[in-house]
Amino acid sequence: MTKNFNLIGISSLIFAMFIWGSSFIGLKAAMVDLGPYTVIFLRMIIASFIFVFFIKQFLKYEFTKKDLKYILLLAIFEPCLYFLFEAKALQYTSASQAGMITSLMPLITAIAAGYFLQEIISRKLILGSALAMIGAVWLSVQATTTQSAPDPLLGNFLEFLAMICAAGYTIVAKYLTHKYSALFITAAQAFIGAVFFLPFFIYEYFTLEMNFTVEAVSWVFYLGIVVTIGGYGLYNYALTKIDASKAAIFVNLIPVSTLILAYFILNEKLTSVELIASATILGGVFLSQMPMEKLKRKKK
Asked: Measuring CA to CA, which residue among 170, 204, 212 is closest to residue 74?
């Protein structure tokens, strides 16, 4: 097995992306009966209860002040700020379009890595980023207003801010994987996320009319166990095997899984314009990741 190809890491990423794609469906469905931050808090608290069984194992780590700062920064990026933006985004846009905006995350991650990690930013990355950005703006402007997506322009912008947080999370998580296990990193996100969203839950509980239906609660448990523990666990584990920039590329699989699931579960449809805009985003992402060496060989 070569250093550039890690079957276990790649398989983990593929499963993680499909699980994350389903999170848009779960959030959208659960928020029909529950407040957005109530859903986030409950999924975090469910995951936290499960991680309690691993506390003795986590206490074996030797924590430094620097590590604690990075752990806190990790959780602030995701789930805290990430879910603040995404929960609001799904109130204004469709699950399908939100899934498409995630295609920008690898580009944002690459740019951040170039700035913070001094990685080289090539011309193809800049060109691909510009193309993907055009597609994202086009997708937002051409979006149609529906009952489930009352303000897609605002919703897509909030999802874009969530992707910036996701990029920051990926870079910090990659640093932490050198010392801490994927299980611990995922648990830290759940614990800190539960504390962070507690005030939001209390506020919604006393101000919003919410129905704890079987369907909504079922989706919350799915989000807490499968998405939070499974999705983040697999992604964090993959970061121990694969570089952050390469792992981020797999985020492009999220729109595919989201589209499939949204079609079958939410009966959402995409117009031809939205499909073309989405293809533009994916085309820009693909261009940004294509090795220049291969392009030169084709010219010969």
From this structure: 170
pTM of the model: 0.80
Q: What total number of domains does the chain contain?
A: 1
Looking at the domain assignment, is residue 1 inside a domain? no
Helix runs in the chain, H state only: 7-30, 36-51, 55-58, 65-75, 82-92, 95-101, 105-116, 123-141, 152-176, 182-207, 214-221, 232-238, 244-249, 253-261, 272-289, 292-299
Asked, for residue 112, whether it belongs to a domain, the answer is: yes
In a domain, 46, yes or no: yes
Question: pLDDT (tens digit, 9 = 90+) per residue, 20-52?
Answer: 888 878 888 898 999 999 999 999 999 999 999
pLDDT tens-digit map of 195-210: 999 999 999 999 999 9
Residue 12 belongs to a domain: yes
